[in-house]
Specification:
Layout: H1 24-51
Length: about 60
């Protein structure tokens, strides 16, 4: 009998190469989303600091 094909845990597309159960395109998408979220958090923190009257350390 044939071996069952592995599927991505995120998109459920069958693929041969899985790292941690997630295909490469999904890993890239998750990584981009996480990096964008981190950038947004930093911007919101900087705005809140400036509202409190603390000088910005950003150059």
């Amino acid at each position: 009998m044939s071996e069952p094909s592995k599927k991505c845990m995120i998109c459920a597309k069958p693929t041969d190469v899985l790292k941690g159960g997630i295909c490469q395109p999904c890993q890239d998408r998750i990584r981009r989303e996480a990096m964008g979220e981190q950038a947004g958090v930093a911007d919101r923190a900087e705005r809140e600091i400036s509202r409190q009257g603390i000088p910005s350390t950003k150059k």
